[in-house]
Amino acid sequence: MLPELLWVEAPLSDADWRELLREKRPEIILCAWETPGLPLEAAEHLKYLCYLCGSIRSLVPRELIERGLKVTNWGAVVSNTVAECALLLILAALRRVGNWSVAMRTQGQWKSGRHPDTLSLFGRRVGLHGLGAISRDLVRLVEPFNVQLSAYSPSVPDETFERLNVRRSETLEDLFSRADVLVELAPGKPDNYHLVGDDLLGLLPPHAVFVNLGRGMVVDEAALVRASQQRGLHIALDVYETEPLPVVSPLRSLDNITLLPHLGGPTPDRRRDCGELALQNLENYLASKPLTNLIDLGTYDRAT
Total structural domains in the chain? Predict the structure, then answer.
């Protein structure tokens, strides 16, 4: 299928990467995490970049796509596993798994009385900040819980809201004030930096939980700490503004929190889905057939 295949181990330095591209002048690059950014001169020979992972903003300059470079990524093929992790964190926050796991293992604690501070997902109001592929898969996963769904996503058409039976929130204030469970899935764009802070978190109803699987930079972590300490907000996080999460981060010392080290993406047993998609795209490219998850300029500009 690819007779002139060259395997290169990553990571490698920018200088070595540029030299390799100048020497080999590949038409196709198949790559994943830790691949250095593409120089603009790659446009002289490179025709197709098949990326096994998600965001390509730090890898591919916009100008290369303007010049006609074809780029694909994993698109929505991993959204189901991320949505699965979102459901895990929602249930963990409602049932206070983070609290009890630590207390039982390190403090020898047990529940006091027959009315512990735990909640069920059944019948809850769930707010989604963003209605992209992950949120849409999450909608299907929470349907058996008979939840009331709302979402804030101005760019998504009304037909999508209607098809998914999701109420449109016209403002973030409306979304947060009506959510027993708030799932943060907004993109990490500059305009969204620390968009979620004291004001929005303060609108969450009593006993609400806040879950973030989107981008860490969207949330003011200091405001999260204050909401937990002052209002008892239960939090479940998989993403952080700085990763790895610093050992000294106040988030690590909170009682009302469940933490994961950015595990929301495809699990090792499901990464083969990305590989199968890439192989199909390579086959399609060589046969001059349409590519799946082709990134155009509009998609590039919306990406994080």
Answer: 2
